[in-house]
Amino acid sequence: MIELLGVTKRFGEETAVDAISLTVEKGELCALVGTSGCGKSTTLRMINRLIEHDGGEIHIDGQPIREFDGRLLRRRIGYAIQSTGLFPHWTVARNIGLVPRLLKWPKARVRARVEELMALLGLPVEQFADKYPEQLSGGQAQRVGVARALAADPDILLMDEPFGALDPITRETLQVELRELQARLHKTIVFVTHDMDEALALADRLAVMRAGRIVQQGTPLALLREPADDFVASLLGGDERGLKEAAITRVGERMLPLSPRLLPQARVHRDATLRQALSVMFREHADRLAVVDDEAMAVGELSLRRLVGAGRDE
Amino acid sequence: MTRRDALPVNRVVPALSLAAAAAWLALASVSVAPNRIVPGTAYAASELLGWPLAGVACLPLLGLAALAWRPHRGRLRLALALNLLLLMALPAWVALAGALRLDPDQPQARLGLGPAVWLLLFCLVLLTIELRTRLALPAWSGWLLPVPILGAWVLAAPWLGSLALWQEYRGRSGQFAEALLDHLLLVGSAVGASLVLGAAIALAMRRDARLERLGFTLLNFLQTIPSLALFGLLLAPLAWLSARLDWLAALGVSGIGWAPAFLALLGYSLLPMVRNTFVALAEVDPGVLESARGMGMGPGQVFWQVRLPLALPVVLEGVRITTVQAIGLTAVAALIGAGGLGTFIFQGLGQAAMDLVLLGALPILAMALVADALLGALTRRLDHRTALRQGVTP
């Protein structure tokens, strides 16, 4: 668990982070979002003491982080930034094994852990272990970055726009992978991004920052439904907020069981988002969809009225 | 011949071979002088062999041009072999020319190398480089190819006793060894000291922006002083110091000799060394350093394991530039009695004995080339990207 209590950071005259308080529960993914220069990266880097906070307190599992040695603290906290963070003169395996080696693990254990992580992140050892970062694609490099951050099995993971430099398709793939990884590992993750869709897709909790302050925090749905002010509303997409909400709600949550009525031709998967369902309706000129499961068996139906949440079907 | 082996029309090789052939026919190959003082008589190949034979002798060069005109790998390999043979045969030609024109009754007679020989050497070396590039031969071939050539030259040496260069050397072999050693010591100590001092200055400059401006201004200013003037400027203060301080005098420090030469060389070496070290350390990707710290590396670990290895190729590039520059500058240091190969150059200039000048200049040239090649190879070896390009996993 990470607690920020009235944390402040000043750079000279300028207050970069202004008395913010935030709690990230164990196993929770908290996304810090906001425009450039709002202090979100500074906040992240104060948690592992890359930057020291001037006021307030930061606690990890109840202990103030000032009580730890900065270096030892950072070895306990995974840290992933844009792919530039990999050491270009080290192989993939050596990059991933960095923190375990700093922690003086025995060689065999480091090697075993590196291989375990490469398997976890879908990087075949024989193919990638001896490659250099420059030989990797953006997505592969980022997987290595995440593997390196996870190497010493830290409870906490800090990620600073880790997918920022990737193309949209790779970014989406990695977001899905991160979500699956998180479902298995239950790390406490603080994730900085300026991409609201990414934040909505990944976060259990959102904290919107502006000019060094947290303007609003809560679950993605809560923020989408009741933005605190116009700034949050516009950051969340203004009038497109409805579509963003549709994009994080599953068809399975809104569908109705099969009725005796004839099933429509147009169909959508149960795990698809409402946004995708809406898109199918738009494309097929249909106001009713059959909901199917993995075996393409119909398991329910979804009407436009039901999709937009305007009450039950008659 | 497969299509894969066919290469685009090559104009460089024919142009160089034809230039070499023209030099061979038109210019003097050797000059013969009865003694050291009298200027020699120059002889072109046609005068030595007669036109028909001289014409026949350029056929290999024309062959080279023909082989490369519509090249494929097989022909280029043949051209490279032919080219190497010609390089190996060059001293034999000089020996033959000597045998044709030297009077056995005149043991003092000297054989000088004519412009044709130098131009042939120049063109043939360029041809080797060009053919090597075209054939995309691996890096080690650069070390292997000179071996048979140098071997052939050494084998031809017994027949080249009357070569003026050799005679100049024979009269001064002891002096030559001493000068070579002095030269190497001066270069080595100046480069070594400038590496240590330069690294220290670069590190200090990284800590303080004011120091950075001051440092670069000073070093740039130092670089603009002509070398001779710097030697002159150091003369008075060093003489004064050694007169005041006995221990300095005991070390051999005085207004002339190795001390001012060393200091001047150090001064000139500092700029490229400091600049490269500074830029190399500053240009390491901040994202990499940030993540190194973020992973929990201490400042020492970040410097030694990340910053320095990533900066090293550029630092070594500075060492290479500095070394090559110092090898040349040390020649001038001979003027203030620092010894070295420059001694022969200035003696030769004074006596209008060009062969003596060559005795000083050629080893300096060779030294610079070897230093350049060795340090270049070391830089490539230490650069992880070399391994990338060659697909080698270390």
Describe this entry's structure for a reader.
The complex is a heterodimer of chains A (314) and B (394). Chain A is an alpha/beta fold and 314 residues long. Chain A is 38% helix and 24% strand. The mean pLDDT of chain B is 84. Chain B has helices at 12-26, 45-49, 51-57, 59-69, 73-101, 115-134, 141-144, 146-156, 164-170, 173-207, 209-224, 227-244, 246-251, 258-282, 286-294, 299-333, 342-350, 354-382, 384-390; strands at residues 28-33, 41-44, 110-113. A 3-stranded antiparallel β-sheet of chain B has the order 2-1-3. Chain B is mostly helical and 394 residues long. In chain B, a hairpin with a 7-residue loop joins strand 1 (28-33) and strand 2 (41-44). The chains are: A alpha/beta (314), B mainly alpha (394). Chains A and B meet through helix 2 and helix 4 of A and helix 15, helix 16 and helix 19 of B.
Mean pLDDT of chain A: 89
Show the largest interface. A-B, 28 and 21 residues
Low-confidence stretches of chain B: none
The major β-sheet of chain A equals: 6 strands, mixed
Query: Strand pairing plus helix content of chain A: what structural class?
Result: alpha/beta
How would you describe the shape of chain A?
globular
Spatial sequence of strands, sheet with the most strands of chain A: 6-7-8-3-9-10
| Whole-number count of domains of chain A | 2
Strand content of chain A: 15-25%
Our Rg estimate of chain B from Cα atoms comes to 26 Å
> How much helicity do the residues of chain A have?
25-40%
Give the overall silhouette of chain B. flat
User: What name is given to the CATH topology of the largest domain in chain A?
Assistant: Rossmann fold
What's the SSE pattern of chain B? HEEHHHHEHHHHHHHHHHHHHH
Task: Give the strand tally of chain B.
Answer: 3
The CATH topology of the largest domain in chain B is given as: MetI-like fold
Oligomerization category of the chains in this entry:
heterodimer
